[in-house]
Amino acid sequence: MSRILIAEDEPGIASFLEKGLNAAGHTTMVVEDGLSAASAARDRDFDLLILDLGLPGMNGNEALAEMRARGERMPVIILTARTGVADTVAGLEGGADDYVTKPFSFEELLARVRVQLRDPGSAEPPELSAGDVVLDLRTRKASVGGREVELSAREFVLAETLLRHPGQVLSRQQLLSNVWGYDFDPGSNVVDVYVGYLRRKLGKGLIETVRGMGYRLVDD
Ligand code: CA
């Protein structure tokens, strides 16, 4: 269990992060501006900071610069809008360890969090596999029978979610909230569409449809 500081001024995103991280066994504290982020990082003990760049007052990059200038070494994952590439680069140069582009799914964020919190003594296996399908969690690349297969970021996260729960039925709703996060229309058939893509790319027999319930990774 780790203590995670979340600096995010959009309440919907902050509570989405908080709920997910709490469910994953972490304790969290949310602050809504850069100055509070920098002071919470100084005054309290956290293992990781999730830092939105677009914060009121002192922005994320300024807060990060302040923290790094006084020698604060905790890992920092920045959250950034798709359009903010220049800011993202500045963030990485300013001492961030990783970044996630909004909109992001919770699984995607959690994968980054796991990497940053990884304790060398209890390293998570760098790969997930099922049959001849292998997902490399470090490079985010997939292969089938040793041959690399091109997956989009979303397809990879969906495959990763299924491979993390072999044999278990995952409902469309679970997959939507895990893979598409807060950024989805609950009525959409996007899960079915993406399962179709994965079957085409990774093999037909890998993902079973459980009628009226959802999908299951065939575990043999
Ligand atoms: Ca913001």
Bound molecules: calcium ion
Output the strand order for the largest sheet.
2-1-3-4-5
* Sheet with most strands: 5 strands, parallel
% residues in beta strands: 15-25%
Please tell me how large the radius of gyration is: 18 Å
Report the strand count.
Answer: 12
Q: Helix content range of the residues, please?
A: 40-55%
- What is the oligomeric state here? single chain
Order of helices and strands: EHEHEHEHEHEEEEHEHHEE
The outline comes out as elongated
Give the CA-CA distance, first to last residue: 32 Å
Parts with pLDDT < 50 across at least 5 consecutive residues:
none
**Helix/strand/pairing class, anyone?**
alpha/beta
* Helical stretch tally: 8
Overall pLDDT score: 89
Description:
The protein has eight helices and twelve strands. The chain has 220 residues and is of the alpha/beta class. A five-stranded parallel sheet has the order 2-1-3-4-5, with helices on both faces. A four-stranded antiparallel sheet has the order 6-7-8-9, with helices on one face. A three-stranded antiparallel sheet has the order 10-12-11. Helix 6 (153-164) packs across helix 8 (190-202). The longest helix has 13 residues, at 11-23. It is elongated, with a radius of gyration of 18 Å. The mean pLDDT is 89. The structure holds calcium ion. Calcium ion binds at residues 9-10, 52, 54-55.
